[in-house]
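Protocol step 4 of 6: structure prediction from sequence.
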Amino acid sequence: MLLSLQALSHTPHTAWQACAFTALAPQLHLLSPQQLCATVAAVEALDLQPGPAWQEAARNASSRCLHQLSAPQLVALVSSLAEGGMEADAEWGCALEAASLPRLGLLSPHQLATLLQALESMRHRPSRRWMRGLLLSFCAGLFSPAQLQ
């Protein structure tokens, strides 16, 4: 439903939103990683305000599927969650770092910057190890291997 509303660029009445988010929150963990990404992106694109219970359910559902996402999907999900006002707790931040660290080299410099900006917005302070991986991947994306030596 949210994806169709997004396609139509229609923002539903706040009473409908409240009912929908109340009903959807307990179901988020049943969505596939792709469905979760699309749902979170639709909420963000429509500039909806799902509330703390939905955000917590989205955080919990996303932490379970972070390892199943491609590198670009991971960036899209984290960016959408950040745009929706989600704050990262320590457990979620650790899960994100574990899932994303091996894939940082697959991201473009723009995607890396988007990911870092999203984490800052979520008030997550990445570990030094993760930051080192991000910065090395960023430089590798900007420069040829010969320039890095």
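Step 5 (inspection) to follow. Residues 2-148 form one domain.
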